[in-house]
Amino acid sequence: MKVTFSYKPISALEADLLVVILDESKTLHDVDALAVQRAIERARRLYQEKRLKREYVTNLDHDAKIPTFILFSTSLNKNYPLGEVVKIFVARALQLAKDFQYRRVAVVMNSSEAQPFVGAVIEGALLGAYTFDKYRTEKNLFFKEVHLEIVGHESDKATNQAVLRRFGAVSEAVNDCRTLVNEPGAEVYPQVMAEVAAKIAKARALKCRILDEKELQKQGYNGLIAVGRGSQHPPRLITLRYRPAKPSRHTLALVGKGITFDTGGISIKPADKMFEMKGDMAGGGAVLYAMQAIGQLKPTINVVGIVPTAENFPDALAQRPGDIFYAKNGKSIMVDNTDAEGRLILTDGLYTAGEQKATHIVDIATLTGSCVRALGHGAAGILGTSQALAGAVKRAGEAQGEVFWELPLIEEYRDMLKTPYADINNVGGTVAGAITAALFLREFVPKDTPWVHLDIAGPFMLDKEWKYYDPGATGFGVKTLVDLCEHFEEYLGE
Fold first, then answer.
1. Active site residue 343
2. Architecture category of domain 2-171 in CATH
3. CA gap 437, 435 in Å, rounded
4. Cα(314)–Cα(249) distance, integer angstroms
5. Which residue among 269, 298, 414, 442 is the active-site one?
6. CA distance 467 to 477
7. Average pLDDT over residues 245-270
């Protein structure tokens, strides 16, 4: 899709479809064309009288340069803030354009109040037009031919170009992440994750280190070795590092769980929807593609992306329930359930964050069904040791339309992880699974380092349309991680 800006009056525009968004508190449009003005007022009355329950679509005058007009009213969608609603409506307008084969679409954002929502138009268009059709005979080529023209305010020309660059880069990263997660497990395994990381590093001038199974064994990264033992695809530990031009006292480590397929191991999962476990590396994918955007947008802090990646299979060599190993920090772990494997490889990722001298750590993982049951598919869980860092993540998520709901680290639940056989058990029983999983991870966070854990098991993949996402992977977390890096000092007040 080609996205450009225009600063012409509406009467001088030429397009197949004109899109206006009507809001009760903000005016996002400035229209000089009489036919369009009349259509807007007609739609406004219909909404006020509650006679219209969906978007308003009409044909303009026969001699108009834009034959079709669509108006969306935010009064019909009060579930989300205005920025999210703009994304939803732009994505919906493009689907209508596809239905009628309109290849020139103009979205009006030319009032003095509209500029803060221009990025939402870009994001709604690029994420809404995404499709994963690699393995389908019939390809969706329509959006490759679409020209989206954003009608802006003349005074915002310079700002709009920066907005296009920023939201274009982040939306591309989100869609790349969606593609990686949507791929079959046979196509994405630890070595492929490592190759993706190397490619990103080369394109964005990032430092890249990849440890193979021999180095992991030699250096004692036993979480990855234990989990990966049953697979023909050996584990990898990926580290990407970004440094800004001006030295920063902050180093934020982003640690992403990279289980490329999770059968559950010996503690095998039920067959129903096991195919979704191709996406058990969605946290690792979010980190890799957040680093892709960070390398392009160049925030002012040091950022380290760490992805421990393995495949969890029940081979004859696989770890057994009851096995015990020593984590990199020296603590012994009993593997009570081999399907609680993500936290085992994250022990290596968290240790690596300490090696990289992280001042703050955020890990992101499709970790527990418990979190899905608690929060559903519209929100991710957040737990950790730092209220300041948790608050920063929530602010970043709110700015980007990704919801994080904080769960408590209840100290007495630590007893649920006790075992007579090792320092800690890898599961805590049948209740409070998201909390005990976070308490387990806390044992491996470098001492005195602010840390939060993001459990994205709910929103990482959808089985039906939601907001501006098609069914499938969402790339959840990429936008939040990038925004957090861009506004780190501001959000933390440092």
1. yes
2. 3-Layer(aba) Sandwich (3.40)
3. 5
4. 44
5. 269
6. 16
7. 97
Q: Are 180 and 196 in contact (CB under 8 A)?
A: yes
- 238-257: average pLDDT: 97
- Provide the 8-state DSSP code for 328: T
| 414 DSSP assignment | G
> Residue 486 in contact with residue 494, Cβ under 8 Å?
no
Q: Tell me, what's the pLDDT at 60?
A: 82
Residue type, 106: A
pLDDT at 64 over 70: no
| C-alpha pair distances (Å), 295 with each of 168, 181, 203, 457 | 14, 21, 9, 27
Instruction: Mark whether 236 is an active-site residue.
Output: no
Q: Round to whole Å and give the CA distance between 435 and 332.
A: 20
Mean pLDDT of 238-253: 97
Catalytically annotated residue among 92, 204, 343, 395: 343
Q: According to the model, what pLDDT value does residue 471 have?
A: 97
Domain ranges of the chain: 2-171, 184-492
**pLDDT at residue 63, as a whole number:** 55
- 26 burial (CB, 10 Å; 0-12 / 13-18 / 19+) is middle
Q: What is the mean pLDDT of the chain?
A: 96
- CATH code for 184-492? 3.40.630.10
Strand ranges of the sheet holding 104-109, from the earlier edge strand across to the other edge: 2-6, 147-152, 104-109, 17-22, 68-73, 56-59
Phi, psi of 403 (to 5 degrees): -95, 130
Tell me the DSSP string of 136-162.
-SS---GGGG-EEEEEE-GGGHHHHHH
Q: Over range 302-326, report the average pLDDT.
A: 98
Q: Please state the rounded mean pLDDT for residues 457-482.
A: 97
Distance CA 378, CA 199 (A): 32
Question: Using 50, 70 and 90 to split pLDDT, how confident is the model at 386?
Answer: very high
Give the pairing type, strands 451-455 and 360-365. Answer: parallel
Helix (H, G, I), strand (E, B) or coil at 214: helix
- HEC sequence for 15-32: CCEEEEEECCCCCCCCCC
Bridge partners (DSSP) of residue 461 are: 473
What pLDDT does 392 receive?
Answer: 98
Q: What is the pLDDT of residue 62?
A: 56
